[in-house]
Design a protein that fits this description.
Elements: E1 3-6, E2 13-15, H1 19-27, H2 35-52, H3 59-80, H4 83-91, H5 94-104, E3 107-109, H6 113-122, E4 126-131, H7 137-143, E5 152-155, H8 156-159, H9 166-176, E6 183-187, H10 190-199, E7 203-207, E8 232-234
Length: 245
Amino acid sequence: MRAVLLDALGTLVRLEDPVAPLRRELAARGIEVDEATARAGLAAEIAYYRQHNLEGSDRAALAALRRRCAEVLRDGLRSAATGAARDALAAATTTAVHDALLSALRFRAYPDVLPALERLRAAGLRTVVVSNWDVSLHDRLAETGIAARVDGAIASAELGVAKPDPAIFAHALTMAGARPEQALHVGDSPEADVAGARAAGIEPVLIVRDDAPRATAAGARRAPSPAAAGVTTIRSLAELPGLAA
């Protein structure tokens, strides 16, 4: 084993619930929305971002993408709002909503991440982050202390292809200086991470964090994904093969 490839969101970092911060940021700009309205607006923005994140390939393109996301957020909030909130959103500028959105998005490294990365490095393994993200991935890794503890990172927007496409895994292997059979890939998505790694000839490891959603809106258990069949599953990077106590 020469390298460990790692997904970002849900594996290395978590997004803190942005609803309360978004409401505070909007209120500071004269826009009062309730929790349900904030969640509806964010749901629309997240869906749009997921469909378009490959467009954030450089700083200028990312700025344009963020403004479009802010417009989607404003429209989503306005559709769900009533009364004075709806009127305030109708008058709100894209810049005001854009600034509120960016201030509300806060990422944190999971507690086990930095120690595990240090142990991987001490073991002589190369580590590369492989994420379906825009070019700001590098900012998030730097501010969480992860960038200093990995050997590289590649965002899907930089390459123009996203997981599960084998091309992004092949690029990460080149960065790591490893062949597929010399690497593991750790991620939280059976479809993007497990199936993608397998398609690239890399052994996958599925991480299921305690904060991962496990139930449908009706409260029923989610059916296991066929993509995750027979894969090593862990709940912490401390459980990685070779690191577990």
